[in-house]
């Protein structure tokens, strides 16, 4: 029996751009890396073949690959015990478990999930005995998770029953080798192999055509920017307004009972990606007004792939994240900044961050680990806040293995005690701030067309705590429960890639049984992981940006606010001689935490031609379990081992 991996995508061609790129590259051929030189040589000597029916969106097919050219074919071996990952996590994260808080060491994680000797042996036997590959051409990676075979393109085609071509990235002109039309593995081998590279995976997942209604392609990834940014003309006058008009640190402290004096000083981080940077002068401007003890303080830089927060770039997201977290936590808590560069358009920032935390991830021949240099050499911190979206949550055989592998890695890292927190999105039930929905023909279209709901990653990964956005209702005080945001729709819904975990079954089923609108079965996946998990204020927050004060927000603000709450909880547990909380989702949904949230019951998250989901008593796909009460959360977590 054979198992076939296919890629179903659309095509565009621009031979002129490729020719120009090749001309410029050939002038400096001698100084190129061997991997790129190989691809260029394949391109030069290959002959043009008939265009296969579907080429990956964002790529152009140039030539049929030269069958005599050598390629390093990599087989990512199936990890052991992945079916037990959730059970392992529940053993240390379920409040009822006697092992609560006993996080694993990095070595324990690595050994537990290392591919089995059976897996290594089965693939090795297939390559040497069935396929006749010389044993000297086969190498096993030090972590035991990759088998690399140096073969010709022709040998790879015979081995995989595939056809290889040379492609060019329409966005940055880079070239690569692949077989977009799919490949075949024997059934007895396919269960031992997660991914084969290079094959159908082309840079970051872009399998569905993505366009706006104006025809302008939507961005590959970005911050949550559904909330407007409004310059403040008169800060003194605005300060006299209520928290429904301007949200300050004092508003947040009042809303979430955030009376916090740090004791442990332990490390927590915020992650920023690409050309998103901050200015120390903006931090000082903000701190002079709201937190004078923090003037002159900046976060500790953890540069990933050369990330530099001092270069030119967008100030909105980092200013928001850093000012809120440092302002709430105060000078006694250490805040670090993962500044993740994006050296090429094909690199997925998710992969860069994961590889920096776990060196074994660098060897995964998945989407974009090729060329990553920071491998397990960066400090692992207790809480990591991510205010960005990277990919739509679509069920597609060409990308699902990749996003599932990324989510698995988040799960493995949570075993070591890290809490990952991410914004749920500013598009309501649509994907991202461009409001993308999935049409019946499989096209992802921006502008809120009538179509199926689309979640977003990494928020929909069950090992991440997703945070939705709320606001103080007009004329209301901080003593009253907030409502879901109306200036933008807070993201939430049900994953198309990840099944609903057991720890949220009761809460989510209650919503599905009693409050969900009567949508057709094709509109959203009722059995998927439901998100967000919690919520926090997302509009209108006062921050300093570009030398002045502005009103800003989004779930981009909600995530670092909730991350600050968990950092404060960790501080209390560490001071009491206990472990950080790590994976918090099972605890948050348990009866032990039933009174730790302010239940948000007003609001909806419209999108895709619908009103989305309504907020409701208990958990809902707009505000999750509700907004936090720090003192109650802290007491509940301190009561655990």
Automatic annotation (TrEMBL):
Listed GO biological process terms: proteolysis
Residue span(s) of domain Peptidase S53: 246-640
Cofactor binding remark: Binds 1 Ca(2+) ion per subunit.
Superkingdom of the organism of origin: Eukaryota
CDD domains xrefs: Peptidases_S53, Pro-peptidase_S53
Family matches, as Gene3D superfamilies: Peptidase S8/S53 domain
MF term (GO), any: serine-type endopeptidase activity
Residue intervals passing through the bilayer: 21-46
Alphabetical UniProt keywords: Calcium, Hydrolase, Membrane, Metal-binding, Protease, Serine protease, Transmembrane, Transmembrane helix, Zymogen
Cofactor: Ca(2+)
Compartments where located: Secreted, Extracellular space
Chain segments carrying region Disordered: 204-225
Record: residues binding Ca(2+): 599-600, 618, 620
Major subcellular site: secreted
GO cellular component, one term: extracellular region
Active site residues per record: 317, 321, 556
Name this protein carries in UniProt: Subtilisin-like protein
């Amino acid at each position: 029996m054979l198992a076939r991996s296919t890629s179903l995508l659309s095509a565009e061609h621009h031979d002129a751009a490729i020719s120009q790129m090749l001309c410029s590259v050939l002038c400096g051929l001698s100084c190129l890396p061997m991997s790129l030189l190989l691809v260029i040589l394949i391109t030069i000597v290959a002959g043009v073949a008939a265009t296969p029916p579907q080429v990956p969106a964002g790529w152009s097919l140039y030539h049929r690959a030269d069958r005599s050219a050598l390629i390093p074919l990599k087989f990512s071996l199936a990890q052991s015990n992945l079916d037990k990952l959730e059970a392992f996590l529940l053993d240390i994260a379920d409040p009822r478990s006697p092992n609560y808080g006993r996080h694993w060491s990095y070595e324990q994680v690595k050994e537990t999930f290392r591919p089995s000797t059976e897996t290594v042996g089965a693939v090795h036997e297939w390559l040497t005995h069935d396929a006749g590959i010389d044993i000297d051409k086969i190498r096993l990676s030090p972590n035991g998770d990759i088998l690399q075979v140096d073969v010709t393109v022709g040998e790879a085609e015979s081995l995989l029953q595939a056809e290889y071509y040379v492609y060019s990235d329409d966005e940055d002109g880079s070239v690569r080798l692949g077989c977009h039309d799919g490949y075949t593995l024997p059934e007895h081998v396919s269960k031992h192999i997660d991914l084969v590279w290079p094959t159908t995976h082309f840079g970051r997942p872009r399998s569905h055509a993505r366009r706006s209604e104006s025809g302008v392609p939507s961005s590959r990834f970005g911050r949550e920017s559904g909330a407007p940014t409004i310059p403040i003309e008169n800060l003194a006058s605005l300060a006299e307004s209520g928290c429904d008009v301007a949200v300050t640190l004092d508003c947040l402290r009042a809303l979430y009972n955030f009376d916090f004096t740090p004791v442990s000083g332990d490390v927590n981080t915020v992650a920023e990606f690409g050309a998103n940077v901050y200015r120390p002068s903006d931090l000082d401007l903000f701190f002079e007004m709201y937190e004078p003890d923090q003037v002159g303080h900046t976060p500790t830089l953890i540069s990933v792939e050369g990330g530099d927060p001092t270069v030119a770039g967008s100030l909105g997201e980092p200013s928001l994240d850093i000012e809120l977290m440092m302002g709430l936590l105060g000078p006694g808590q250490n805040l670090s900044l993962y500044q993740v560069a994006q050296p090429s358009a094909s690199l997925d920032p998710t992969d860069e961050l994961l590889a920096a935390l776990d060196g074994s991830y660098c060897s995964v021949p998945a989407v974009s680990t090729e060329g990553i240099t920071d491998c397990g050499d960066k400090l692992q911190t207790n809480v990591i806040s991510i205010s960005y979206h990277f990919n739509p949550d679509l069920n597609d055989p060409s990308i699902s293995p990749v996003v599932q592998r990324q989510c698995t890695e988040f799960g493995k890292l949570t075993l070591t005690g890290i809490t990952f927190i991410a914004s749920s999105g500013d598009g309501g039930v649509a994907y991202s701030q461009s409001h993308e929905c999935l049409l019946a023909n499989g096209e992802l279209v921006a502008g809120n067309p009538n179509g199926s709901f689309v979640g977003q990653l990494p928020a929909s990964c069950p090992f991440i705590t997703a945070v939705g956005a709320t606001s103080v209702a007009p004329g209301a005080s901080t003593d009253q429960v907030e409502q879901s945001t109306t200036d933008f729709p807070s993201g939430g819904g049900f994953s198309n890639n990840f099944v609903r975990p057991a720890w949220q079954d009761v809460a989510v089923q209650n919503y599905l049984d009693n409050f969900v609108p009567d949508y057709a079965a094709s509109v959203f996946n009722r059995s998927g992981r439901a998100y967000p998990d919690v919520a926090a204020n997302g509009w209108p927050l006062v921050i300093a940006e570009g030398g002045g004060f502005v009103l800003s927000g989004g779930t981009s603000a909600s995530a670092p606010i909730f991350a600050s709450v968990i950092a404060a909880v960790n501080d209390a547990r560490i001071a009491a001689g206990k472990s950080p909380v790590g994976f918090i989702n099972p605890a948050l949904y348990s009866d032990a935490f039933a009174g730790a949230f302010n239940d948000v019951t007003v609001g909806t998250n419209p999108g895709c031609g619908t009103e989305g989901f309504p907020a409701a008593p208990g958990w809902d796909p707009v505000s999750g379990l509700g907004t936090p009460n720090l003192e109650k959360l802290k007491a509940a977590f301190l009561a655990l081992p």
